[in-house]
Amino acid sequence: xxxxxxxxxxxxRHRNLLGIEDLSADExxxxxxxxxxxxxxxxRARKPGKALRGRTVINLFxxxxxxxxxxxxxxxxxxxxxxxxxxxxxxSIKKGETLLDTALTLNAMHPDVLVCRHPESGAVSLLSxxxxxxxxxxxxxxxEHPTQALLDAVxxxxxxxxxxxxxxxxxxxxxxxxxxxxxxxLLHTMGARVRVIGPPTLVPGTMERFGVEVFHDMANGLKDxxxxxxxxxxxxxxxxxxxxxxxxxxxxxxxxxxxxxNAKPDALILHPGPMNRGVEIDSEVxxxxxxxxxxxQVEMGVAVRMACLEVLTRxxxxxxxx
Amino acid sequence: MAGANTRHGGExxxxxxxxxxxxxxxxxxxxxxxxLVTSDGTIADLGPRxxxxxxxxxxxxxxxxxxxxxxxxxDMRTQLREPGEEHKETIETASAAAGAGGVxxxxxxxxxxxxxxxxxxxxxxxxxxxxxxxxxxxxxxxATKGLQGRExxxxxxxxxxxxxxxxxxxxxIANSRVMQRALNYARTFGLLIVQHPEDPALAENGVMNGGxxxxxxxLRGIPTVAEVMTIERDLRLVEATGGRYHAAHVSTADAVEAxxxxxxxxxxxxxxTAPPYFTLNETAIGDYxxxxxxxxxxxxxxxxEAIVEGLADGTIDAIATDHAPHDQDSKRVPFxxxxxxxxxxxxxxxxxxxxxxxxxxxxxxxxxxxxxxPAGILGLAEGRLRKGGPADLVLIDPDRPWRIxxxxxxxxxxxxxxxxxxVQGMAMRTVVEGRVLHDRLA
Lengths: 322, 442
Description:
The structure holds two protein chains of two kinds.
Chain A: H1 8-11, H2 25-43, E1 56-61, H3 67-78, E2 82-87, H4 90-94, H5 99-107, E3 113-118, H6 123-128, E4 134-140, H7 146-160, E5 167-171, H8 178-189, E6 193-197, E7 213-215, H9 218-221, E8 227-230, H10 246-253, H11 257-260, E9 268-270, H12 283-286, H13 294-313
Parallel strand pairs in A: 1-2, 1-3, 3-4, 5-6, 5-8, 6-7, 8-9
Helix pairs in contact in A: 2-7, 2-13, 3-13, 7-8, 7-13
Chain B: E1 16-25, E2 30-39, E3 42-47, E4 60-63, E5 68-71, E6 73-78, H1 91-101, E7 103-108, H2 119-132, E8 136-139, H3 155-161, E9 166-167, H4 176-187, E10 192-195, H5 200-203, E11 208-209, H6 212-217, E12 221-222, H7 225-241, E13 244-247, H8 253-264, E14 269-273, H9 275-279, H10 301-312, E15 318-319, H11 328-331, H12 348-357, H13 363-370, H14 372-378, E16 393-403, E17 422-432, E18 435-439
Helix pairs in contact in B: 4-7, 7-8, 8-10
């Protein structure tokens, strides 16, 4: 249950949002409630918000991303912040500047919020130890992607009215997925039952240590599921190393109408995007507006990121008008 | 068509009664005097009291006095050379050889040209087997694409098409990560990985067993550890992944011991061996006899003895022919250049029966390793006598003495080191789904 909004200074204990694993159910609920608020606001004719007026947000992306970066950028702009995007890809890393050099350089410019995505697990946490501003994890390696899990949760909650007691099946490349990890943590904390489905090369049996049920076939794994969450399979992983081929993967683990028929009749389909149609999901299913919440996930993405920015900056000193 | 004494397409729908037989079915533990009747390609009935009065008239009666009627032999490791090397063997000639040897089901390796690593390859074997319509032929598919040991094959689709299990044939899956993934991925569908257990780096350029004999002959040796190291590594991966694993043609005492320990720990592990490994030792190479060159190589007498012991105590689950037909050009070359392998389909039964005649294994136990054992490992319905099951049978005269004469093999290739070896026991009739494939009764 959400903590009443009257005690803003104490309700969110964290300086940064590095992962879902650290969050309590109350903290998650607070973020979801605020996300709902912003989702409604975003649908109305909007005036720029004031919550982040006078604040500087830097989007620091060490990995290619258009949608996530745009979503964070829009979220910050709609709250009245000044936004700077920095894309530091492989070429700049080759120049020899380490992650910590970059962190110290940016810190010296006194931003209020750093949103960071990095291909290495743990890199965002390392960065957060060297800067004084708020750090939001925009995805680190195969570790966590907290805003994705939050936007999935808002989407589910708006459609199903709750998270508690739902059966959620997460399908595909779980072992390499930060989306899967963050979702497992969030859904568990909020009282949902989580299953993971995929071949053992992508869903190792040790996943059971996360408290999830492990399945290696879609028919049993999807049985009576309320939510079907598909993961994106990276191309380089389906050419014989983890999976023999695209067609074999699609045949046994791609979500099509036939496999989906094992889930509840009103089961909701989620996908973090971008989709590989004909690999992990069939177009017929992906484009079924009655079943698929994929567009809504994108919409909720902006609202969730607004909520995160707003809640995290509450604890910062008031910006100075001078 | 090969051998004139091979009869094909015997009246399938006819009813045949085998009477006065010793019925031996290791899968069910049946060993009794009795009768068996086949009809429409299936076993219509069997048992000790069947026809206790007299068989009905108008039924063909085969008197099996002094003979054993058992499930047709299931050979879990054969190289058919088709497609790609039809000058060495074809499905047709191998089927004729199998019939002569009492083998009613063959499972072939994917090391053909092209490699059986896609659905079309599996379908090709199935189609050719239908056309030849003699022995039943199943196949393994490659575990990695092109047998290259790197990328996994489409195991799910291949299994749906009929591939029984996955192996890189006469090559080891050497890379530990690839082996781990293969075991792990195959587990998705409960499939079996069959390993050629030999560390390629240790075996590189080796042509015979490493040791004193190789030193004397001046030939490069393959050390015993090349086998057991690979098996022990694989067993670790089996333990880590829970995948099903089968070690092919074990040849060393150390390997038998490693598998014995793994079985004691109840790991999902099985293994087979082949007649040369319990019949011969490295001295058979003698004066550079290339017919005694095989992979893995013939080992020492202690190893041979350990293989027999492994068969006797159940560590070794199956005996396969490891049939590796080669033409003259592949064997009449200097030892190091010769191809590996023995044409084994026609000698599987008599060589295996030596274990019974020497008192090392009981008849039921031995036949189990040739029928229900391999069939069980591969999930085949064959290899057992079951009412309503396929009428795949072999009628064995267990004591009949004869000499092995490779020149009279029905196999296209005659490469075998058993010239004039006296043996006891012969397949008198081989039946596949009621059709008489080979008949020496007449």
